[in-house]
UniProtKB/TrEMBL annotation:
Pfam families given in the database record: Abhydrolase_3
Domain of life of the source: Eukaryota
Entry-linked InterPro entries: AB_hydrolase_3 (IPR013094), AB_hydrolase_fold (IPR029058), Carboxylest/Gibb_receptor (IPR050466)
Matches recorded under Gene3D superfamilies: alpha/beta hydrolase
Species of the source: Aspergillus coremiiformis
A molecular-function term among this protein's GO annotations: hydrolase activity
Keywords for this protein: Hydrolase
Occurrences of domain Alpha/beta hydrolase fold-3 (ranges): 66-276
Keyword Hydrolase: yes
Protein name, UniProt field: Alpha/Beta hydrolase protein
Cited PANTHER family: ALPHA_BETA HYDROLASE FOLD-3 DOMAIN-CONTAINING PROTEIN-RELATED (PTHR23024:SF242), ARYLACETAMIDE DEACETYLASE (PTHR23024)
């Protein structure tokens, strides 16, 4: 049974935020190669996937990048990464799965993590179709949290983890979230607090320090079965500090990583804020930085 706060606070505020996003956010119509429905652990539902196929896919099992969109865990953003997914598919031999995971407060933690786990389980059950040695993860903002949580806690193994401005430390005080630079889009503190409250409103209430919610707290020796890691940190974003602290922690623990964590890098993007790549216009400096960072992802996948 849902608590009273769901009906008088969480659901109404989430509905209002979604309506505002519908009016104010840039309208993106995704154009994937195809759409796929993957079975979930709940036999009554399936998980929607946008599939982006390379123009010249390799023979045999396909290398695969699983992508998770930004959402704040509250506002459905599936399709916002259309540019990114097309770019990866055009410039590598990877097929990209852009995954629609469930939103809070209707489906709080661990629902998005379970959706991610179900997709990974399905992919790994088909070795004739997908190359398990070249399975990668990527994500943006809240989706970066989902991708990082999988890399930190799922046995994998994973070839690559690429995360753009992710939340990796749910217990970090808002007062410590200060952007290195002025300017750029910054997530308001009230929005961050609401999204966290909505996401952790179910069985994970009060469990922000759980390593599935805050991947930065997962020790290298206990997880992180991923070979290459790239964290993207816009300097105008209040999440920059935790992203860079997380990368430093992985770099410091590389010796314990064994055959994993061979490459661990952080790309700070000066003069840009949260989700800058989603609003950058072609011909601008922001666009050039977007393409440069997307190019780094391509190099990491090769």
């Amino acid at each position: 049974m849902r608590p009273l706060t769901y009906y008088i606070v969480l659901k109404p505020v989430a509905t209002l935020l979604r309506q505002l996003a519908f009016v104010l956010a840039p309208r993106i119509v995704p154009t994937p190669s195809s759409t796929l429905l993957i079975p979930s652990r709940d036999p009554k539902r399936s998980i929607k996937i946008h599939v982006y196929s390379p123009s010249s896919p390799p023979k045999g099992p396909l290398p695969l990048l699983l992508n998770f969109c930004g959402s704040g865990f509250v506002i459905q953003g599936h399709g916002l990464d259309d540019d990114y997914c097309h770019y990866i598919a055009r410039n590598t031999d990877y097929t990209v799965f852009d995954i629609q995971y469930r939103m809070s407060p209707e489906h709080p933690c661990p629902a998005p993590l379970e959706d991610a786990e179900d997709v990974i389980t399905w992919v790994q059950s088909q070795p004739g179709s997908y190359d398990r040695s070249r399975l990668g993860l990527s994500g943006f903002s809240a989706g970066g949290n989902v991708a990082s949580s999988m890399a930190a806690n799922h046995p994998g193994p994973f070839k690559v983890l690429v995360v753009f401005y992710p939340v990796v430390d749910a217990v970090r005080p808002m007062g410590e979230r200060v952007a290195p630079e002025r300017g750029g889009v910054k997530l308001p503190g009230w929005f961050m607090r609401f999204c966290t409250r909505a996401y952790l409103s179910g069985e994970f209430r009060g469990r922000g320090a759980d390593v599935r919610v805050s991947p930065i707290l997962r020790d290298v020796k206990d997880g992180w079965r991923v070979e290459r890691v790239l964290g993207v940190s816009p300097a105008g974003d209040i999440l920059a500090g935790e992203v860079e602290d997380w990368v430093k922690k992985l770099q410091a623990g590389r010796e314990e990583g064994g055959r994993f964590l061979k490459i661990v890098d952080c790309e700070r993007v000066e003069g840009c804020g949260h989700a800058w790549d989603k609003v950058a216009e072609e011909g601008t400096e922001a666009w050039e930085k977007k393409m440069r960072v997307y190019g780094k992802v391509v190099e990491l996948l090769k």
